[in-house]
Specification:
Glutaredoxin; six-stranded mixed β-sheet; two-stranded antiparallel ribbon; 15 helices
Length: 358
């Protein structure tokens, strides 16, 4: 029997074999990318998506591919619009969250946020399934009960992040008058902060004399000076009936109010303070990096026009006299609401670089 000749033993066959190897090597190098750009080129990443209203010129070629891939992978936040973000914006589909979502993803890609984290931030900000029903049930509040945006905060008066967040939330109520409502609930971290529970009781007791918000501001400004004598000094400064204040500190309904706040927060998934829900959606890095932008978008997605930013005075002396920090301006009385607020998914509003969760 004759042995089968190997192709390599034939000169012409050997040449074709070498050329094939060379071609395969070139194709392999192209597929794997260069040393400076190791991102594989796939069907999804190779396409350069162009979306009206999104300037991708700020991205590198690699960032542009990453962003383009997500524009074709992520679905529109509105359940009634079953298309990806790119199609939603290009075809002007009836989902107001699509363009802001595309713009947010561009910023995240540009800032070097990993894809897994980008996906999580996208879901936290826009996924309709992430909206929770929040019951305000008589908690102290400021702003109209029918405000477009409702912010509910659980906080601890010894928590530094809560102290930093308080003026931010106050500022949002002032920045969008009539459009933002702020609701406060207590969540003292008793294991970490020895005076937190007593401070929470103090603010509840002050609320019984219509001084919740003034006491709220004093306790955060106290920077940890929250002994019983300190609390009584603050109560006297606010003109409270001290005998009544002392009695209310340990009254059964005060403890009941406190325990109700704690139980509700834990049922909603609290992992630390401040725990903030904006229209039922938990705050995250997106909120703390741009609180005003988050609230403004919520107002727009609800079909309303955000109130314009107040004009700054051209006279420095006048501006400095009138522009007091929002956290220092306390209302004279507390208002409450007994209504239950079921936040709608149609008005999408969760750790933070400004006020990280503890």
């Amino acid at each position: 029997m004759r042995a089968r000749r190997s192709p390599r033993s034939n000169g012409l066959g050997g040449l074709f074999h070498l050329l094939g190897l060379a071609l395969f090597t070139v194709l392999a190098l192209i597929a794997c990318g260069t040393k400076n750009d190791p991102t594989p080129i796939t069907a999804s990443t190779a396409e350069n998506v162009n979306i009206p209203g999104v300037d991708t010129s700020v991205l590198t070629p690699r960032e542009r591919r990453e962003w383009s891939a997500q524009m074709t992978e992520l679905l529109a936040p509105c359940p009634e619009v079953p298309v990806n973000l790119a199609v939603c914006v290009k075809e002007n589909r009836p989902c107001k969250a699509c363009l802001p979502a595309a713009q947010l993803m561009l910023k995240l890609v540009q800032n070097g946020i990993a894809k897994k984290d980008r996906d999580e931030l996208f879901r936290g900000r826009f996924d309709p399934k992430g909206v929770k029903t929040v019951v305000t049930d008589g908690s102290p509040e400021k702003g109209p009960p029918d405000a477009v945006v409702t912010i509910v905060e659980w906080a601890d008066f010894e928590c530094p992040a809560c102290q930093a967040t308080a003026p931010i939330l106050d500022g949002l109520v002032e920045r969008f008058p009539g459009q933002v409502r702020l609701v406060y609930k207590n969540y003292p971290l008793k294991d970490k902060h020895p005076h937190a529970e007593l401070a929470a009781k103090a603010v509840i007791a002050a609320g019984k004399q219509d001084k919740f918000w003034p006491m709220h501001h004093k306790l955060f400004a106290a920077r940890g000076k929250l002994e019983q004598t300190d609390l009584e000094d603050y109560a006297k400064a606010l003109g409270l009936d001290i005998a009544r204040f002392r009695a209310d500190l340990n009254a059964p309904d005060t403890l009941e109010r406190l325990e109700k706040d704690v139980k509700q927060a834990e049922g909603l998934g609290l992992t630390g303070t401040p725990f903030i829900l904006i229209n039922g959606r938990e705050s995250n890095d997106v909120f703390f990096n741009d609180p005003e932008g988050w609230v403004k978008l919520d107002i727009e997605m609800a079909g309303h026009t955000p109130k314009p930013a107040p004009q700054k005075s051209a006279t420095p002396e006048v501006a400095s006299a009138s522009a007091a920090p929002s956290g220092s301006a306390a209302p004279s009385a507390s208002t409450t609401s007994s209504a239950s607020v079921a936040v709608s998914a149609s008005a999408p509003p969760a750790a933070s670089s400004v006020a990280p969760k503890k």
